[in-house]
Each structure stands twice: as C-alpha cells, then as structure tokens.
Specification:
Blueprint: H1 3-13, E1 26-29, E2 38-42, H2 47-56, E3 60-63, H3 80-91, E4 94-97, H4 100-104, H5 109-116, E5 120-127, E6 135-147, H6 148-158, E7 165-166, E8 173-183, H7 188-193, E9 198-202, E10 217-220, H8 223-227, H9 229-241, E11 246-249
Parallel strand pairs: 2-3, 2-11, 3-4, 8-9, 9-10
Antiparallel strand pairs: 1-4, 5-6, 6-8, 7-10
Helix pairs in contact: 1-9
C-alpha cells in the first residue's frame, strides 16, 4: 500500500491544516508514493521504537510527536533525533507524525481522554479560528457528582499515572470536568470560564497551581500519560478504513519520565 493511501485516511480525520504554525505534523521521512506493508504506532520515535520496527518488519512508524521539530543542521548521529532519522532513511522506514492536528480534531486526543474518564456531553474548550468544530481541550459532565479525591484516584489508576500533582481542592465533589492532553496550562482560564470543577492536563508549572480565587481544582497527570491514547486513536482510524493493512501498537513506546514514590 502506498504511504499516501495511509496518510489520506489519517488526514481525513485530522487534517494537516489544523496543526499549529510551530508544528511539524505530516510525512517527515519517506515519499508519498513509497510502498509500505506494516505500520508501527507509537507516541515518540526513539531508539527502542526503531528497534521494534525493525524487529517486527514495520516499514512506517506513525507517532503523535514529530521527531523533527526544529531544523536539523547535521546528520552525524550525535543525538537521538539525528540517529533515528538517519537510521530510518538507511533502513527505508517512513516516519509520519500526527500531532497538534490530532489534538484539535473533533473526536481527537482530549475527546478520547475525557470519554475514558466517563465525561460526556463534550464541548470544545478553546475553538480554533480555522474550524468551529475543532480546538484544544474539552469540557463536559459526569453522570453524577463524585468525590474529588476519588475521581483523581480513579484517573490515576485508569491511566497508570505515577503521581498526580494537584492544586488545593476547590470543592469536595466534581461533576463538570475539563480535559486537555499534553501541555495545557494555557487553558486554565478557559476551564474556569466553562464552569469546570476540575481541570485535568499536564506539564503544569509551580504558579499554575496557585489559582487566586480557588475556582477549580487543577490536576497534572503527566504528558505521556495524557497522550498515550494517541496510539489507540490512530489504530482505530486505520483499522476501520484499511482493514487489509497490518497495524501494530508499539509495546516499546514508554514514558521517558520515571517516578520515585
């Protein structure tokens, strides 16, 4: 199957024009008319994922994070990015990324994470200028109010989170939940305006936890943990439309952050 046949299916769900200006989603290594036979799905491209692709006979790796985010000036294997890109070219393995376009596509990252938490009646938290039905983050409601700490414990267990960092608990129960996968501190005010009782995201800094009016609880569940769902989303997209194409979910796509608890 040609790479273009695969990327067309992905981009039908998450068009490339939804990506942010700083992003590098799309085909990074390879040509659109190259033939490929088996895809490996992962969060990142790294040495372990490259090993897995070669071991399993995968000739295209589809990830959430683009391995090349800034211009490369050298290819001398002096760091992991250069090493993996050079290796992919030498081995004939295509690299494709579906990043902020998958974040903001309707039914994308935050939508999937929220539904896995049992949150329904979802609305976009920050609508993009390009598409009123797309944007970053979602907000919705639980079937019934639950204890705030119990909700965070359930999220921790559901997503295998090493440690949940959270602010002062604003209310004893939560019923309205805002979610943004990845680094979502910039949407705290949007979550407040949407009437959320709790905001689940990642990559929060110290001062992000000090809300002046204690209007809502904010919780950081980790970047990788919040975005691991990308693998299943991509698997569902490809399996539904390309039923004869082999797709493997990576077992070596692992969190680079470790926790000592």
């Amino acid at each position: 199957m040609k790479i273009k046949d695969i990327t067309d299916v992905i981009e039908e769900f998450a068009p490339l024009d939804l990506q942010e200006s700083y992003d590098n989603s799309g085909l990074i290594v390879g040509r659109c008319d190259d033939e490929v036979h088996k895809a490996l799905l992962a969060v990142d491209v790294n040495d372990e994922v490259m090993d897995e692709a070669e071991r399993e006979g995968c000739d295209i790796i589809i990830t959430h994070h683009p391995i090349v985010f800034r211009a490369l000036k050298r290819f001398n294997s002096s760091d992991m990015t250069q090493r993996c890109v050079e290796r992919a070219i030498r081995r004939g393995i295509a690299l494709y990324a579906c990043h902020t376009n998958l974040d903001s596509a309707q039914g994308g990252m935050s939508w999937r994470l929220a539904r896995m938490m049992g949150v329904g009646a979802l609305e976009v938290l920050q609508v993009t200028d390009r598409d009123r039905n797309a944007g970053f983050g979602v907000v919705g409601n639980l079937p019934e109010a639950v204890d705030t700490l119990e909700f965070m414990r359930a999220v921790k267990e559901r997503f295998a989170v090493g440690a949940v960092r959270y602010s002062r608990v604003a209310s004893p129960t939560v019923s309205r939940v805002a979610v943004c996968t990845g680094a979502g501190a910039s949407l705290i005010d949007e979550a407040r305006r949407a009437g959320a009782d709790i905001y689940i995201t990642a990559d929060m800094k110290y001062h992000d936890f000090t809300l002046p009016d204690n209007a809502l609880t904010v919780a950081d569940i980790g970047h990788f943990e919040s975005e691991y769902c990308a693998i299943q989303i991509l698997f569902d997209i490809l399996s539904k439309k390309l039923i004869t194409f082999a797709v493997r979910k990576s077992v070596d796509s692992r969190n680079p952050v470790n926790y000592l608890v």
